[in-house]
Design goal:
The protein is an all-beta fold and about 110 residues long. The protein contains no helices and 8 strands. The radius of gyration is 13 Å and the shape is globular.
Length: about 110
């Protein structure tokens, strides 16, 4: 996969799902929080967003009441990309729905 150093999002942002360290809705493409690079995949579902990096790390942000961001707690909102589970595992693919998330582990 080619990697890219920027993720943009727009629309509703009441739970930080745009990842730009804000809760303000955006009516045009807005870059997520700076400092993260090498994204190869981005996923969003409802109010939660995820990005997979070229080295298999997952970052998540947005609504997290059920712990679906995988950051080790159930903080209601995460408004910047945050490493999932301390990125102790390496993944090759990710998937999510409204209340849970999944990663296909690299062998």
């Amino acid at each position: 996969f080619p990697s890219h150093d920027r993720v943009f999002g727009w629309g509703l942002n009441n739970n930080g799902q745009l990842g730009n360290n804000s809760l303000t809705t955006a009516d045009r493409p807005t870059q997520t929080f700076y400092g993260y690079t090498n994204y190869v995949e981005v996923r969003a579902s409802g109010y939660t967003s995820f990005a997979l990096t070229s080295n298999g790390q997952i970052y998540s942000w947005g609504y997290n009441t059920y712990g679906q961001c995988g950051v080790g707690n159930a903080t209601t909102r995460i408004s910047v990309p945050t490493p999932a589970a301390g990125n102790l595992l390496s993944f090759v693919q990710l998937a999510n729905n409204e209340t849970s998330s999944y990663g296909l582990r690299a062998v």
